[in-house]
Amino acid sequence: MPGYLYILVSLALFFIGTTGVLLRRNALFVLMSLELQLGAGSLALLTFARGLGDQKGHVVAFFLMALAAAEAAVGLAVVVSVFRTRKTIDLDGINELRN
Amino acid sequence: MFSLSRLHMIPLLPLLGAAYLILFGRRHSRTVVQTIATLAVFASCVVSTDAFFFGLRESVHQGGISELVYPWFSAGNVVVDLSLRMDALSGLLCLVVTFIGTLIHVYSAGYMAHEEDYPRFFAYLNLFCGAMLILVLGDSLPVVFIGWEGVGLASYLLIGFWYKENANASAGKKAFITNRIGDFGFLIGMFLLFRATGTLDIPAILDSAKSGGALVAPLWLGQPVAFWAAVFLFLGAAGKSAQIPLYVWLPDAMAGPTPVSALIHAATMVTAGVYLVARMSAVYMLAPAALAIVAVVGALTALFAAIIGFAQNDFKKVLAYSTVSQLGFMFVGVGTGNFAGGIFHLFTHAFFKAGLFLCAGSVMHAMSGSGDITKMGGLAARLPWTTRVFQVCWLAICGVPIFSGFFSKDAILDGAFATEIYGHGLAWVGPLVGGLLLLAAFGTAFYMSRLYFLVFSGPCRADEHVQHHIHESPVSMVFPLVVLAAGAVLAGFVGIPPAIRELFGKHGESTLAVWLEPAVGAPLEVAHRTEWSVMGVATIVALGGIGLAYAFFGGGYRAPAHAFAKKMPGLVALARDKFRIDEIYTAIIIRPLQALCRVVFLVVDRIVIDKVLIGGWAFLADIGGRMCRFAQVGDVQRYLAVFAIGFAVLVWIAARPATPEVEIAIEGNHVAVKLVDAEADNDDLTYSFDFDGDGTPDREGRDPSATWIYGGPDRHTISIVIRDERWHTQRTLKRDIEIRQVP
Asked: What number is the average pLDDT over the span B534-562?
């Protein structure tokens, strides 16, 4: 399979993730879309690393995994805590910093 | 041999004393403080004496001793060194300042014995001495100016020494501000001299003046540079030396402690103006009209201040106006080109006027601090030493023969009547100022005798309580008095005029005039007949003034005095109110200035600065903030959308290939193409040039320039492709050219 197809998959994943992050109202879905974006990034990195024969891309992809795990933990904690105080995780209702 | 030390020690010692006393004075007892202060000045006096008598004698005709302390600054063609020079003139002044300064330090130890702020007083006094010595020894105008401002500062600090009383603080401010007006003149004069001669070194300026040169070129109103420089420098001198119209600060300066009045406001600082004119003598000699201004202002001041002195009832105020008047005499001296005469009077005046002021201090000490002469009288019996000293100094200032004032006043009058410096147009100036001075000399004799009779003769008019406390001052105060009295007699003998010298079988000019010749030029030639007649008239005038004062005030207020006061109450009141000059200044200068300040405050400060500049920026920030608020929707997803768009724009900008300028040079059929500013730092750009329009690159590579040779005259299209290897983007540029001829 040629390398550019991997890049196309990565692009598709990234756009799906971006759309989800920007349009979904539920904070949990937003977090999940975020994970999709990170996955798309990892895939691109790995593709280029293989294509260029450069191992740095693999290293960064490992870092991304750790980052994604940490981000998910913190993000979920924030969502839980927001839910406790507001009884909702609908992003439309969370705009206290307005104006 | 000038061996003891170097010139910089002279001002440095008192300055070190001042610094030490300011920093650590409070840790020491009064004895230690006064010892440090006095020794600092005394040591400076010793060094000055050593330099004067041993170093200067050999070099006086070669411009004296000079020392480069350090190169101060140089900017462009302005080179200013902190250099000192002791020549005949500054050496004499140095001796006067350090000698009288030492005496007054000794006197102050007694006079200020009950004062709380002892170290501060002595520190300021030392500061003054140091600054005055810099002023005197400075070899370039900026250095003189440092001393000039330094003495102004010391004067301000000491006038307001008892700053807790508002009047004293105001008097200090008045002195300082009035002097600032003069300083403005000093600076302008300095700039003019610099512009004309290109240097600020005094010897260089004087040399330039002696050769005429740039200083005689006309500047404004047809007058030469020398005239304007001289006039502006004289404005500075008039401020420092209390001449019309800037004399008003000196009488108020009497608010300071009496030793300060004696040292700063009588003997030394106020003579700095006279010194400046004498120092710049060669410049003044180029401008007779400026000299005429100096002489006329001096003569008017001498007379005017003497008249005010007639009616003053405060001991120190009488002496203050007397100082103003005597400074007028000195200015007539230097203003008639008789620089040696002016400096001679400066020299003798320093002794007798310091003596008079210290007597005033002694008397006020005895009278429980009061200086009101209407409440004095009969002190001769109670203060024997003070009285004797006062008598000597009084006769000296009146100009009674043998006493020093006689000789110096005579030298000035001789000069005024004999001078020929003004030329034809202004020849009337000499006799005019001479006549005014004779009147002023009569006035001097009158007001000083009035002071003497009212204070020392007849019955005492003080109340019982004060009378009970009258006592002679301690030795530390009497000793300087006696020394100054001796000076008041002896100082005149250095300037015995040629007419009298002849009686003793000696020829030529007076010792002092000969001594000063290298610094201020040859003394005036005065015919012996003129000298004898001036001496005669001056003696009659002095004795007449004393006689009239005796008729009015001998043994207290007598019938003629009362009769005169009754006959002309308006005139007496006017003189007592100092001709209301202060009130006139208030009305025509201070009030309008305050009104102007008020307008400026209301318009510039309140409206332009507060409202527009400060309020305006705040208003803009406020509006900006309000507008930005609409962007703050609080919805995190919209923020993210903006972020995503912004990031996309950044990527697009970074990935955009360069659009360089294309420079095409055609020479015959040779074409050179060069891309300018094609992202010089970007190594990943490759360029391909297609010259013949066949679609395949003719030149390719990382070089942004290429050449091509065409076959014959024709129109061609060059297409250039720039590729960016990082982003795999490319841009194509096309340029049409025409080859006109082939060689």
From this structure: 87
Tokens of B700: 């390719």
Please tell me the pTM assigned to this model: 0.74
Q: B245 preceded by cis ω (within 30°)?
A: yes
Closest by Cβ to B633, choosing from A22, A30, A95 = A95
Pick from B632, B633, B641: which is nearest to A22 by CB?
A: B641
Q: From the candidates B629, B633, B636, which should be mutated to test the interface with A, based on the most A CB atoms within 10 A?
A: B636
**B353-371, pLDDT tens digit by residue?**
999 999 999 888 888 878 8
Q: What is the sign, positive or negative, of the torsion defined by CA atoms of B719, B723, B728, B730?
A: negative
SS3 state of residue B618: helix
- Complex ipTM, two decimals? 0.85
Q: Which residues pair with B593 in a beta bridge?
A: none
The DSSP-derived string for B453-488 is HHHHSSS--S-HHHHHH--PPPHHHHHHHHHHHHHH
* Of the candidates B282, B256, B73, the residue with the CA atom closest to the CA atom of residue B163: B256
Q: Which residue of A has its CA nearest to B626?
A: A99
Inspect the interface and report whether the beta carbons of A96 and B634 lie closer than 8 Å: yes
The answer to whether the Cβ–Cβ distance between B632 and A98 falls below 8 Å is yes
Residue A68 binned pLDDT confidence (cut-offs 50, 70, 90)? very high
> Looking up tokens 């020491």, which residue turns up?
B28
Structure tokens at A45: 């990195």
Instruction: Give residue-wise pLDDT tens across range B648-697.
Output: 999 888 777 667 788 888 888 888 888 886 566 667 788 888 888 787 88
Find the CB nearest A22 among B629, B633, B640: B640
Determine whether the interchain pair A95/B634 forms a contact, defined as Cβ–Cβ distance below 8 Å: yes
Surface of B (624-663) touching A: CB under 8 A: 629-630, 632-637, 640-641, 644
Longest dimension (CA), chain B: 130
pLDDT of residue B4: 46
Burial of A79 (0-12, 13-18, 19+ CB in 10 A): middle
For B2-16, write each residue's pLDDT tens digit. 444 578 889 999 999
Do B679 and B663 form a contact (C-beta atoms < 8 A)? no
Q: Which of B635, B641, B644 sits opposite A95 (nearest CB)?
A: B635
User: Residue A56 burial by CB count (10 A; 0-12/13-18/19+): exposed, middle or buried?
Assistant: exposed
